[in-house]
Design brief:
Radius of gyration: 21 Å
Number of strands: 12
Number of domains: 2
Strand content: 5-15%
Number of helices: 12
CATH superfamily of the largest domain: Type I PLP-dependent aspartate aminotransferase-like (Major domain)
Largest sheet: 7 strands, mixed
């Protein structure tokens, strides 16, 4: 069976695994230990990883806060601003209806704290019009939060235009880059983006470690407050002993991502072309504008085929998804596709295919015949 669910998680690179094993088996020191060489070498490994992860988006190592993953980073970026926002009359937040639940649910918490949260509906193609953000801006706007690319549809948001809209407004700009960090990251290097979240396991690194990039504004720090207390690690924003093996693995994954980005992209484009060619006779319908999609993602419905039935028919050949891995157990219709205004009949047929440079060639004939039998 071929794994085609890389937006949920990716296989780990061998080079990353080897680095992790070194810091599990040989260099197992605590990064906070200052009295011996084990601690010194662990601290050096963490610092190197900070530099490599920050380099992906042209940020300095001092702007890198390691977390357990993008979900924690999202919570810290949003809830961490609540105290300052309320104290300074900044109680308005702009986001979108197609965000991951790891953003939407913290925003619900913000509403309960007294914030006004406005969620912008996407265009039919799955992208958000930056002019709608401009129209919603107020003097009291604390934050604009948008994902870079959607985990279900792969549709990329125009961060350059959003950055331009916010050029003369003091609102903080936060981007959930879980699907693009290390893959499609040019726009993430804009200094107008104040905070960026990402997870290592989306770029062929380990699960359990992520990052929140927290950029300086000149000489001013973003006024985040920690969500937990109990230590001074990570600039006082995220207490606890650092998982050196995970962080070192993240650093290596980031280094490889920059080194191999062009080669990986070409491989994914080639696979995409074969995928669309091999399934053309099944008359696939895209959810979202394919011209604005990540090269390794296709959210497609096949007319007359329910997605659950399709996944059962394909389970011996490919592993695919019909929604976000974080909400798949709920079996609820996708909030992303509903926000795009798609009919329930099309949503019930939607399947997400997502691949990577490691993806082997599946049995296309078996895929076609299995799906055709359902039409």
């Amino acid at each position: 069976m071929v794994y085609l669910d890389c937006n949920a998680t990716t296989p780990i690179e061998v080079e990353v695994r080897d680095v992790m094993l070194r810091y599990l088996g040989e260099e197992y020191g605590n990064e906070g230990s200052r009295t011996h060489s084990f601690g010194v070498r662990a601290k050096q490994a963490v610092q190197k990883a900070r530099e490599l992860v920050g380099k992906v988006v042209n940020s300095g190592s001092e702007e890198v806060i390691f977390t357990s993953g993008a979900t924690e980073s999202n919570n810290l970026a949003l809830l961490g601003l609540a105290q300052w926002g309320l104290a300074n009359g900044k109680n308005h937040i702009i986001s979108t209806q197609i965000e991951h639940k790891a953003v939407l649910e913290p925003l619900e918490k913000m509403v309960h704290k007294g914030f006004e949260v406005e969620l912008i509906a996407p265009e039919a193609g799955g992208w958000v019009n930056p002019q709608n953000i401009q129209r919603m801006l107020k003097p009291s706007t604390l934050l604009v939060a948008t994902m870079h690319a959607n985990n279900e549809t792969g549709i990329i948001q125009n961060l350059a235009e959003i950055s331009q809209v916010l050029k003369n407004h003091p609102a903080y700009f936060f981007v959930d880059a879980a699907q693009t960090f290390g893959k499609w990251d040019h726009d993430l290097r804009s200094p107008r983006i104040d905070m960026i979240s990402a997870s290592a396991h989306k770029i062929f690194g380990p699960k359990g470690v992520g990052v929140l990039i927290v950029r300086q504004r000149g000489y001013q720090s973003i006024p985040l407050q920690p969500l937990m207390v109990g230590g001074g690690q990570e600039r006082g924003l995220r207490p606890g002993t650092l998982p050196v093996h995970l962080i070192a693995g993240f650093g290596k994954a980031a280094e490889i991502a920059m080194r191999d980005q062009k080669k990986r992209r070409e491989s994914c484009l080639s696979f995409r072309h074969r995928f669309l060619t091999e399934t053309k006779n099944l008359n696939p319908v895209f959810q979202g504008d394919p011209e604005k999609s990540l090269v390794h993602t296709a959210n497609i419905s096949f007319p007359g085929i329910n997605s659950e039935a399709a996944m059962v028919a394909l389970k011996e050949f490919v592993a695919v998804s019909n929604g976000s891995a974080c909400t798949s157990a709920s079996y609820q219709p996708s909030h992303v596709l509903k926000a795009m205004g798609l009919p329930d009949s099309q949503i019930s047929q939607a399947i997400r295919f997502s691949w990577c440079h490691m993806t082997p060639e599946p049995n296309w004939a078996a895929i076609r015949s299995s799906l055709a039998a359902l039409q």
